[in-house]
């Protein structure tokens, strides 16, 4: 058996590509059922979030879908040529695929390291696969292993404490200044990658009243649709700021969007108290002099970067510890995965050795020896010899398993079985030639 994952994420592919290849729940169910229909002996789970699309597959080494077939399936399902996204894909197999899922579920591969949302998304993907009857013994065990790993990583490392991105620190700062950020009116200026990351953090902490404003209204609308928030037009910006509690600016601009004099007019129209302004744009969007106004609190990217770097240094040890948990659990899974193939392989080896011994006996007892009296003695004797040889082989396979792992032992056993099958086939062919 083999395990494969084909996917792309926020590091390997831009949002436009991820969006085109994303699956909603209904599409996931349809895709999983179609895959299971095409490959009934294989198992599948489809993980699709705003940051990643990954197709997991467990199948027989021979006869199951290869990674190229999985890529073709994604291409055909979305009616997008493989050339449009192939360069953004990553493909992992075996232990690498297992470690990847455990890393993803533990939020160690997330855009926001330590965020808790991904484990819910992994569980939902697995639930859909079960509903579609697309999973099975291998992926069942693998995904439950990922749930346990995520729990252990978060419990042992406190990985979710302390934001390590500028966007995360910005939202953390807002949470400190507003006791109940879920009720705050938030305006995000800019719909680029940083704007989207800000939205992810804001939605994650429970903000409900968020408006994204971009020079490109269509882009703002698309971003708003993905996160279930509102999009405003650029010409409404001053009006929205006059009503906001928090404004986070990340727009691309060569000069200030707001100078002190212009911002004063916005403040005149405000009916609220304190206004938190977070400017993470480079070059800056907001004139530093705006911070001189009463009840206006302006923080720039330099203020936040130092906090993010400090958090990152503190969390490096936690991340390292989390990855060690991932590697240990992946190794345990691979031990189970390798061992599960050995039982049937040993059975096949025993059967092939027995067939070879019987064929050789049939070749011996021909002609004048066909009714020889020694036959009744030789047959059980040859059987005992075969069993002793099998015991010797199995004992050595156990040594390989202990020294190099069950997966390597299974590969050796598979090779022995294939050679035995070749010998058995040659023996039967020789027998047929002699009879003819």
Which tags fit this structure?
436 residues; alpha/beta; Beta Polymerase, domain 2; Rossmann fold; 3 domains; 15 helices; 58% helix; elongated
N→C terminal distance: 40 Å
Number of strands: 10
The CATH topology annotation of the largest domain reads as Beta Polymerase, domain 2
Q: Give the helices and strands as they follow along the chain.
A: EHHEEHEHHHHEHEHEHEHEEHHHH
CATH architecture level-2 label of the largest domain: 2-Layer Sandwich
Reconstruct the topology from this structure:
Blueprint: E1 2-9, H1 15-21, H2 25-38, E2 43-48, E3 52-59, H3 67-78, E4 90-93, H4 95-105, H5 117-131, H6 137-157, H7 166-177, E5 185-189, H8 193-204, E6 209-213, H9 217-227, E7 230-232, H10 237-243, E8 246-249, H11 260-268, E9 275-279, E10 296-300, H12 301-340, H13 342-364, H14 375-404, H15 406-435
Parallel strand pairs: 5-6, 5-8, 6-7, 8-9, 9-10
Antiparallel strand pairs: 1-3, 1-4, 2-3
Helix pairs in contact: 2-5, 4-6, 4-12, 5-6, 6-12, 7-8, 7-12, 10-11, 12-15, 13-14, 13-15, 14-15
Walkthrough of the structure:
The protein contains 15 helices and ten strands. The strands form two sheets. A six-stranded parallel β-sheet has the order 7-6-5-8-9-10, sandwiched between helices. Helix 5 (117-131) packs antiparallel against helix 6. The protein is of the alpha/beta class and 436 residues long. The longest helix has 40 residues, at 301-340. It has three domains: 2-160, Beta Polymerase, domain 2 (2-Layer Sandwich); 166-308, Rossmann fold (3-Layer(aba) Sandwich), CATH 3.40.50.720; 341-365 and 374-422, no CATH class. The chain has helices at residues 15-21, 25-38, 67-78, 95-105, 117-131, 137-157, 166-177, 193-204, 217-227, 237-243, 260-268, 301-340, 342-364, 375-404, 406-435; strands spanning 2-9, 43-48, 52-59, 90-93, 185-189, 209-213, 230-232, 246-249, 275-279, 296-300. Helices cover 58% and strands 12% of the residues.
């Amino acid at each position: 058996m083999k395990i494969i994952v084909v996917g792309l994420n926020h590091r390997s592919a831009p949002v436009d590509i991820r969006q085109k290849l994303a699956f909603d729940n209904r599409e996931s169910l349809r895709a999983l059922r179609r895959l299971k229909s095409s490959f009934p002996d294989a198992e599948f789970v489809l993980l699709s979030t705003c940051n990643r699309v990954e197709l997991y597959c467990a199948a027989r080494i021979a006869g199951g879908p290869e990674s190229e077939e999985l890529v073709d399936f994604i291409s055909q399902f979305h009616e997008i040529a493989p050339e449009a996204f192939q360069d953004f894909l990553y493909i992992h197999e075996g232990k690498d695929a297992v470690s990847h899922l455990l890393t993803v579920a533990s939020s160690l591969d997330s855009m926001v390291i330590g965020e808790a949302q991904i484990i819910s998304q992994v569980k939902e993907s697995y639930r859909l696969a079960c509903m579609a009857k697309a999973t099975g013994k291998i992926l069942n065990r693998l995904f439950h292993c990922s749930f346990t790993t995520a729990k252990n990583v978060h419990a042992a490392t406190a990985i979710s404490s302390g934001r390590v991105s500028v966007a995360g620190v910005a939202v953390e700062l807002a949470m400190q200044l507003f006791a109940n950020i879920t009720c705050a009116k938030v305006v995000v200026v800019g719909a680029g990658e940083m704007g989207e990351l800000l939205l992810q953090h804001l939605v994650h902490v429970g903000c409900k009243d968020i408006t994204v404003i971009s020079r490109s209204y269509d882009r703002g609308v698309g971003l708003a649709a993905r996160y279930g928030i509102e999009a405003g037009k650029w010409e409404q910006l001053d009006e929205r700021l006059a009503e906001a509690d928090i404004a986070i600016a990340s727009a691309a601009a060569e000069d200030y969007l707001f100078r002190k004099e212009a911002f004063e007019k916005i403040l005149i129209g405000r009916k609220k108290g304190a206004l938190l302004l977070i400017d993470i744009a480079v070059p800056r969007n907001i004139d530093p002099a705006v911070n001189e106004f009463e009840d206006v609190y302006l923080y720039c990217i330099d203020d936040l970067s130092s906090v993010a770097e400090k958090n990152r240094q503190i969390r490096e040890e936690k991340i390292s510890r989390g990855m060690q948990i991932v590697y240990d659990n992946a190794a345990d899974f691979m031990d189970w995965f390798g061992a599960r193939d050995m039982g049937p392989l040993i059975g096949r080896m025993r059967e092939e050795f027995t067939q070879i011994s019987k064929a050789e006996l049939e070749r011996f007892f021909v002609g004048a020896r066909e009714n020889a009296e020694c036959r009744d003695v030789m047959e059980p004797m040859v059987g005992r010899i075969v069993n002793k040889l099998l015991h010797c082989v199995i004992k050595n396979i156990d040594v390989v398993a202990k020294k190099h792992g069950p997966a390597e032992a299974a590969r050796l056993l598979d090779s022995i079985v294939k050679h035995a099958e070749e010998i058995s086939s040659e023996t039967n062919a020789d027998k047929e030639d002699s009879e003819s």
